[in-house]
Design a protein that fits this description.
It is built from seven helices and seven strands, in the order H-E-E-H-E-E-E-E-H-E-H-H-H-H. By secondary structure, it is of the alpha/beta class.
Length: about 300
């Protein structure tokens, strides 16, 4: 902005920039003056929309979204906002500043009940003339939620849900069926939460009934660990077989000798077999006799 918010929009104005959107809050009596300043001083000549938000405990926040489209390719946005109380929701009309605000004020009037004084034709726009109430208020009674079952997801504890019942939270506008509607006074009261003192007393009683917890040191271990150790002492376990692995690099490759066979000590070579003895002939030749020294034949 070229100047502070209080200087442009009057005393009591405050500006806030969030997510690239400038929002200016002004008092209700400076509503039309703030819209005029936004149009003439800031160049926000484009009127986009006007609506309201029901804030319980605060009032109705009336918002007008404006834009400056004078620069090609650039849009500067501005939200001018004010608040009116719930008991007297009235605001001067903005038709004299932006003619397009007439239809938006008619919709806001019938949905929230805000009265725009000075409006030329403040009649219902969307709802029939016989409709009673303002449906976008937080205190508007949603009679259909009480007269018939909700067609959506079931609450815990209801039929076809299967879960335990919990404390039911009613959204804004949905009254208690035991206080409003055809079942008024026919339903049992909702279960009340116990007082803090009662809960504390119940917790103390439960703690008194609970047995004292035994303390153990780290070296002693727990009771389950001691029981396991006693069982191991009484019955020793058999040695566990070595764990085998299915990893492919632990298997011998084809054509190679496993490591276990290579580590074995080679056995001593066996002695050569003895040859079989040759068979002896049946008739042995007689050796020649020596000649007689006397030279005669022996008779």
């Amino acid at each position: 902005m070229p100047a502070p918010a209080a200087q442009l929009f009057g005393p009591g104005a405050a500006a806030e920039l969030a997510y690239g959107l400038l929002t200016v809050d002004v008092p209700a009596d400076a509503w039309t003056a703030a819209l005029t300043a936004a149009r003439d001083d800031l160049g926000c000549t484009y009127f986009d929309w006007l609506s309201a938000v029901d804030e319980p405990g605060t009032g109705f926040r009336i918002c007008a979204h404006l834009a400056d489209v004078s620069r090609p390719g650039t849009v500067r946005r501005l939200v001018v906002r004010t608040t009116v109380p719930h008991d007297a929701p009235a605001l001067p009309t903005a038709v004299g500043v932006f003619a397009g605000a007439g239809w938006h004020e008619r919709e806001t009037h019938e949905m929230f009940g805000v009265d725009f004084t000075g409006h030329p034709h403040l009649v219902p726009l969307l709802l029939p003339e016989t409709f009673e109430g303002h449906p976008l208020r937080k205190d508007f009674v949603l009679a259909a939620r009480v007269a018939k079952a909700w067609p959506g997801a079931k609450e815990p504890g209801e039929s076809e849900h299967g879960g335990p019942k919990r404390r039911q939270m009613l959204p804004p506008g949905v009254p208690d069926p035991n206080e409003w509607g055809p079942l008024k006074g026919q339903l049992p009261p909702a279960p009340a939460r116990p007082a803090r003192g009662a809960r504390a007393a119940g917790a103390a009683g439960a703690a008194a009934e609970r047995p004292a917890r035994r303390t153990r040191s780290v070296s002693a271990g727990s009771a389950s660990q001691q029981a396991a150790a006693t069982g191991d002492t009484a019955a020793p376990k058999a040695p566990t077989a070595p764990r085998s692995t299915d990893a492919p690099w632990h298997r011998p490759a084809p054509g190679t000798t496993p490591e276990r066979e290579q580590d074995r000590t080679p056995e001593a070579p066996q002695a050569a077999p003895k040859p079989d003895p040759k068979p002896e002939p049946d008739h042995k030749p007689e050796p020649p006799q020596a000649p007689d020294p006397e030279g005669g034949d022996t008779p």
